[in-house]
Amino acid sequence: MVQKNLIDGEWIAGSEAFRNINPSDTNDVVGEYARASAEDARAAIAAAKAAFPAWSRSGILERHAILRKTADEILARKDELGKLLSREEGKTLAEGIGETVRAGQIFDFFAGECLRLAGEVLPSARPNIGVEITREPIGVVGIITPWNFPIAIPAWKIAPALCYGNTVVFKPAELVPGSSWAIVDILHRAGLPKGVLNLVMGKGSVVGQAMLDSPDIHAITFTGSTGTGKRVALASVEHNRKYQLEMGGKNPFVVLDDADLKVAVEAAVNSAFFSTGQRCTASSRLIVTEGIHDRFVAAMGERMKGLVIDDALKAGTQIGPVVDESQLNQDTDYIAIGRQEGAKLAFGGELLKRDTPGFYLQPTLFTEATNAMRISREEIFGPVASVIRVKDYDEALIVANDTPFGLSSGIATTSLKHATHFKRNADAGMVMVNLPTAGVDFHVPFGGRKGSSHGSREQGRYAAEFYTTVKTAYTLA
How far apart are CA 456 and CA 416, in angstroms? Predict the structure, then answer.
């Protein structure tokens, strides 16, 4: 059965369908999904526009009930939805279930936020005049999400958009439509009025472009590549619309001489290689001071030897496959570039064969890298990391900040002085001390600086900054 797009409350078949393939077993078709056309996208935008007046003035209990019901169903079906996620994206079953739980927690959080909508009442500088400051929904929000977190990222965009009274046109990554379709189906059955949430699956060049071209989309939130993010920005400026971009990183993880070696290695392995390195918060630059460098590299090699790379659904698997052939080719191209640049391939880099045909790549560690190399400057988005040797903390901080990105940054140290200084001076939106650079709770702000992000933060109460607009009203007493 072909899973359809949701437009104006109706499930609509596209002109064609595309297959969702399991990267752990390319013979396994996860499902078939309808591909929306530009006309479908425009119909979805029109439906969202028509639904906005009523939904923006809907009661807070109605919104709360729908989001809470959605959260409850996601959490009740976490094993089933987590398995679907792992089949289509390739992260391990434990990671898939964990991400699904996070999506449920996000909807639960914003169900609560529906009941906490607040403003301010201020005295005017003029006598007998009152001032009210309130937040109101923006209008139609376009949501474009990537393939690497196919249920969590849609959740942290859709939930606040609906919570604050906006209507939505949602385009998930074509590579992983299953998890997104499941979320939309749950929300639809939870009682959303028609047109409030519209799902248009398909190509970015068709569906995404139709969204960018429409003057009736009042805000766009995008997570994906830097190149596409720039196109979203340019199109949004033309229409004077609000836009929010999350575009990636080249995140550093600093290891100082005084670090606990075991803690440092575990954090580095998790940061660089878990989720197959396919996280914008992954650390692909391991910046290590010379006093601990050799011991760290040796310990990393031993730890990497024990990593289990296999089918995402198989018990005991620690790292699944790369998401598809195109991404696998990009990873292997960068491994070749690193060797050509003079970095030493210390471990991994080999294509692996398993019981089922899939995109299996051995986690890869370079040493003798410099921060000027392409493998240290450009986002690879795979299980590939480079060790950069530095003299001391001061040089480590300079190298860590020497990047066009600024999403996440980490340090392993037992020095309170260095930890405190790094938290203050790391040029990143998120900083981790003795923890992996990936992993942010559902209720705290997520986002970066420089080339990683544009606009206000996602998640938590900070989401209100993007999904609402502020109104100031005066009343003569």
Answer: 30
Number of H helices, E strands in the chain: 15, 23
What own/partner pairs with CB < 8 Å and gap ≥ 24 does 20-23 have?
20/88, 20/175, 20/176, 20/177, 20/178, 21/88, 21/324, 22/87, 22/88, 22/90, 22/358, 23/89, 23/90, 23/312, 23/320, 23/321, 23/322, 23/323, 23/324, 23/358, 23/359
Q: CA–CA distance from 311 to each of 204, 270, 304 (Å)?
A: 29, 18, 17
pLDDT of res. 33: 98
pLDDT at 28: 98
Determine what percent of the chain is predicted with pLDDT higher than 70. 100
What is d(CA 143, CA 120) in angstroms, rounded to the nearest whole number?
Answer: 29
pLDDT of residue 14: 84
Side-chain-side CA neighbours of 166 within 13 Å: the count stands at: 31
C-alpha 450 chain-centroid distance? 17
Token output for 200: 């248009």
The domain 251-433 is placed in CATH, from the list 3.40.50.2300, 3.40.309.10, 3.40.250.10, 3.30.450.20, at: 3.40.309.10
Outline where 209-285 has alpha helix (H): 209-213, 226-239, 261-273
Q: How many CB atoms lie within 10 A of CB 157?
A: 28
User: Within 13 Å of residue 391, how many CA atoms lie on the same side as its CB?
Assistant: 3
Contact by Cβ (8 Å): 430, 407: yes
Distance of alpha carbon 108 from the chain centroid: 19
In which order are the strands placed within the sheet that holds 468-476?
Answer: 120-123, 129-137, 468-476
DSSP letter for each residue of 181-206: HHHHHHHHHTTPPTTSEEE--S-III
Per-domain residue ranges for the chain? 2-247+452-476, 251-433
C-alpha to C-alpha distance for 103 and 38, rounded to whole angstroms: 29
Q: How far apart are CA 240 and CA 145, in angstroms?
A: 21
Structure-token pair, residue 286: 């391991």
Q: Write out the CATH class of domain 2-247+452-476.
A: alpha beta
Beta sheet of 25-35, edge-to-edge order? 2-3, 25-35, 16-22
| Best CA proximity match to 150, nearest among 101, 202, 85 | 85
CB neighbours of residue 355 within 10 Å? 10
Catalytic residues: 246, 280
Backbone angles phi, psi at 35, to 5 degrees: -95, 120
Looking at residue 109, its pLDDT comes to 98
The tokens describing 25, both together, are 């077993």
Distance CA 424, CA 464 (A): 26
Name the 3-class secondary structure at 68.
Answer: helix
Residue ranges in the chain whose pLDDT is less than 70: none
